[in-house]
Amino acid sequence: EVQLVESGGGLVQAGGSLRLSCAASGFIFDDVAIGWFRQAPGSEREGVSCISRSNGWPYYADSVKGRFTISSDNAKNTVFLQMNFLKPEDTAVYYCAAYRFPSRLDTNWPRAWRYDYWGQGTQVTVSS
Fold first, then answer.
1. Which among 5, 37, 75, 92 is most buried, taking Cβ atoms within 10 Å?
2. pLDDT in the model for residue 104
């Protein structure tokens, strides 16, 4: 059974940092791409970043480039999202998601429909 469990959300002031974790189980880490999405109230789910160890890429949304960093600890099957210089507009529920067998260049990584498995989400609130 595939499981994704997020942790690390919370309340932080603008300019601060948080690190989200996604503990994954039920698949071979090399066979999947794992992404982070976020959804603010009244907004669509937005792809933030994605990593594929087998393809050697991370991808980032323009809104977070230079501020967020995605990484993985393959021994622990865990993906991290380090979020620095947080802004109030980063406030959202953050979700970890995964899909199997990503292609070498996958332009669909920000599309929610691309993902087969989702975590329960963790709230990130950035105060001004």
1. 37
2. 85
